[in-house]
Amino acid sequence: MKKCLAPSILSADFGILKEQLAQVDAAGAQYVHFDVMDGVFVPSISFGMPVLKSIRKYTDKVLDVHLMIVDPERYIKEFAEAGADIITVHAEACKHLDATIDAIKATGAKAGVALNPATPVEQILPILHKVDMVLIMTVNPGFGGQKLIPYTLDKVKELRDIANEKGLEIDIEVDGGIKVDTIDLALEAGANIIVAGSAVFVGDVKANATALLEKM
Ligand code: DX5
Ligand code: ZN
After folding, report:
1. Proportion of the chain above pLDDT 90, given as a percent
2. In CATH, what number does 4-214 get?
3. Separation of 139 CA from ligand 1 center, angstroms?
């Protein structure tokens, strides 16, 4: 199964974002992770469609959009039009998760579903066959630079086992607290898409991304 690094630009320096995108690109990162926060589903507010549209001009990497917003079905078409390749919604934020996944797929983007640490894997089993990716949050969503919550990796393992049993080739993404010293645990648990924000963008961006990619 392919393994991909998804640097989260939430921790980037937005004044020099174009250069920092080029640095993660040069390191060989395959995705760019784009965290959208609405100040309601999570406490903080980040960025939205216009920023995604700008970024699309400067990278041909997979744009991996993580919507931490309530009722995300309202904005799916707009994020797809702004250049999203993957759109991930939180199971906790959707009134009609099945329909929202259909709406993502109708745009041509890949569909992901995210689970907060306290949300059990069982909750998404009915729709598992419909999604391309499951994002297991390894911290509570809302901020970069937090510490990984160890029990969330048990959920990664549980989900990978279920997917294997069902014969589903699903991507499992982990997000939050992934650094050079925790990435092995996430990979061993069965994750294959690795989000890293502060571990990439604090310090030497290219060297940081390279160090993580070497472990994959
Ligand atoms: C947090 C976001 C993450 C964040 C991760 O809610 O979903 O993508 O950027 O940051 P780090 O890797 O610093 O924990
Ligand atoms: Zn994220």
Report:
1. 100
2. 3.20.20.70
3. 8
